[in-house]
Write a structure and sequence with these properties.
heterodimer, A: alpha+beta, Histone, subunit A, 3 helices, B: alpha+beta, Arc Repressor Mutant, subunit A, 9-stranded mixed beta sheet, 3-stranded antiparallel beta sheet, 16 helices, 15 strands, Aspartyl/glutamyl-tRNA(Asn/Gln) amidotransferase subunit B (chain B), ATP binding (chain B), ligase (chain B)
């Protein structure tokens, strides 16, 4: 029932920055297909006339005034960072060389 | 990916072939699409109460929300929404009665949440237009597809590597002060029918948009600080001999030139991409749909080399934020706060001030409209205000690379200077010396003139003596004036001025000469 392809799994792995071996790709294809099939059962629910929703509560326009509130100091902000340098978060280089 | 700063650019040394402008235009018809990001001037970020000041210490304006720490929840900035609606209304858009935020998912450390909160298929404003005028007065309508709310990203600094740029960097350092600052992204529809004026229309559009946003008071719109940024999409299609057939030709493949961050660059980047596309197409090649990076110094674009399959943002509605549903009344209340549109305003002011088209163009190019308006309001003559702001002060601002507003002279001071000239106390060259003094921080024009002893002599006693001497020494000139050659008086006036070391009131000198010569 699932139409997930091996290429789809490879694409998702790339987007999620997860390196998968060929064997792992095959295994994930099977496991993800099972999950998709299970979730697909939801599509049998009668939804005619039901508005799609992204939030369980019927609320709109929840806002706050444009007033500064105390935040973190830079020391607090960086305290959980595995690496920091020059008061900035240090991260692995961003793009690999072409 | 998101709005990378210019230090993220990949440097690609090669120079690509281009056709000449005339060859390009003869064979091809351009289609443009412009995306402008404007940082709002709110006191706080879009989804948290962190301040938004430019140039603060790294990571000093952050909190759990904009750092994406677990358990933190965003709340929308009321003023951010109001600004978005006002921008939408000023761009003649429809305001959505119901719209949502969406997550734009990507892996890149400039957003610690691993997504950017944006809007996807339900933007707050859509289907608008903005009329723009080119320097020669020709008018174009730029159709707006949408304006939506989102948040800015952090700033990355790439360390190590041969070039210090993104490729070859050993690691990156990220400052999240900018992450979460409210952004409005304004996207045009595909713009056709501009032909060889396309680069100029692109520039005029961004300039008009900048003026409009400034008039709305929603942003400081400083392109050099990145609070207004433009991405330019360009494609070409073969030109048809009959213009009415042009619309039938399908669009070509487009490229998107990122971070074109000055008005002049908008025009140059569009022009360059058109000539580059033309060379590829004329050579039988095809355009690769890609991101291009603009290089201000060399005036060319280079390939961004981004992999197209990485651009899969998997948008979905943001579950942590409820929809924005402005009532019709609240929209009308915001509409009532809109300023006069820039093009109309310019026409009105030009009429009120009595400027010629050429004078008005100089004023616009000097970015002096607001400041002249304030100067006239402070009592200056429109001609005097123009003369100072788009003349001497603009020249000095240009020289120093500064804004007119940062020159250390106020509209009130210029009005005072103008009054001193109009009232006959100062002539032009004295007024310039007074300006020097004011700019050097010596005080108000009146005080500077006093301190430097600058004043025209209009006292008849002192002037009369000088005039008598000059008349006595030049009987030939006097004879000429008497015989009807009034212009000969100019030479006499000049001699009196010289005798008075330039401090004489020339108008009064003329009167005295005419009285004495008796014509």
């Amino acid at each position: 029932m699932s139409s997930l392809s091996r290429d789809d799994v490879a694409h998702l792995a790339m987007l999620a920055r997860i390196e998968l071996t060929d064997a792992e790709l095959d295994r994930m294809l099977g496991e993800l297909s099972v999950i998709l099939d299970a979730v697909a059962l939801v599509q049998q629910a009668p939804t005619e006339g039901v508005e799609p929703m992204s939030h369980p509560l019927p609320l709109v326009n929840v806002t706050r005034p444009d007033e500064v509130r105390p935040g973190l100091t830079s020391a607090q902000a960086l305290s959980g960072a595995p690496e920091a340098d020059q008061q900035r978060f240090s991260v692995p280089r961003i793009l690999s060389d072409d | 990916m998101s709005e990378h700063t210019s230090d993220d650019l990949a440097l690609d040394g090669g120079t690509e072939a281009v056709l000449t402008w005339d060859e390009t235009i003869a064979a091809y018809d351009p289609v443009l699409g412009l995306e402008v990001h404007v940082e709002l001037g709110t006191a706080t970020k879009m989804f948290c109460g962190c301040p938004t000041e430019f140039g603060a210490e790294p990571n000093s304006q952050v909190c759990p929300v904009c750092l994406g720490l677990p358990g933190s929840l965003p709340v929308v900035n009321e003023k951010g929404v109001e600004s978005a609606i006002r921008i939408g209304l000023a761009l003649n858009c429809t305001i959505a009665p119901w719209s949502r935020f969406a997550r734009k998912n990507y892996f890149y450390p400039d957003m610690p949440k691993n997504f950017q909160t944006s809007q996807y298929d339900e933007p707050i404003a859509f289907n608008g237009w903005l009329d723009v005028e080119l320097e020669d007065g020709s008018a174009y309508r730029v159709e707006i597809e949408r304006a939506h709310m989102e948040e800015d990203t952090g700033k990355s600094l790439h360390v190590g590597g041969a070039t210090g740029r993104i490729h070859g960097a050993d690691y990156s350092l990220v400052d999240y002060n900018r992450a979460g600052i409210p952004l409005i992204e304004i996207v045009t529809k595909p713009l056709t029918g501009f032909g060889d004026r396309a680069p100029e229309v692109a520039k005029a559009y961004v300039a008009t948009l900048r003026d409009l946003l400034r008039a709305l008071g929603v942003s400081d719109v400083k392109m050099e600080q990145g609070s207004l940024r433009c991405d330019a999409n360009v494609s070409l299609r073969p030109r048809k001999k009959k213009p009415e057939k042009q619309a039938e030709v399908p669009f070509g493949t487009r490229t998107e030139t990122k971070n074109v961050n000055s008005l002049r660059s908008v025009e140059r980047a569009v022009r360059y991409e058109m000539t580059r596309h033309a060379a590829v197409l004329a050579g039988g090649g095809s355009i690769l749909q890609e991101t291009r990076h603009w290089h201000e110094d060399t005036g060319v674009t280079t390939s961004g080399r981004e992999k197209s399959d990485a651009e899969d943002y998997r948008y979905f509605p943001e579950p942590d934020l409820v929809p924005i549903a402005p009532t019709a009344d609240s929209i009308e209340a915001l509409r009532a706060t809109l300023p006069e549109p820039p093009v109309q305003r310019r026409r009105r002011l030009q009429g009120e001030w009595g400027y010629s088209d050429l004078e008005m163009r100089d004023v616009i190019n000097a970015g002096a409209i607001e400041i002249i308006e304030a100067t006239v309001a402070a009592g200056a003559t429109p001609a005097g205000a123009r003369k100072w702001w788009s003349g001497e002060i603009a020249r000095r601002a240009n020289l120093d690379g500064r804004e007119l507003t940062d020159m250390g002279i106020t509209p009130r001071a210029v009005a005072e200077l103008d009054a001193l000239v109009q009232g006959g106390r100062l002539n032009d060259s004295m007024a310039r010396q007074v300006l020097d003094g004011v700019l050097a921080g010596e005080g108000n024009p009146g005080a500077v003139a006093d301190a430097r002893g600058l004043a025209l002599v209009s006292d008849d006693g002192a002037l009369g003596a000088a005039v008598d001497e000059v008349i006595a020494a030049n009987p030939d000139l006097v004879e000429k004036i008497r015989s009807g050659k009034v212009q000969a008086a100019g030479a006499l006036i000049g001699q009196v001025m010289k005798a008075m070391a330039g401090q004489a009131d020339a108008a009064r000198v003329r009167e005295l000469i005419m009285e004495r010569v008796g014509s």
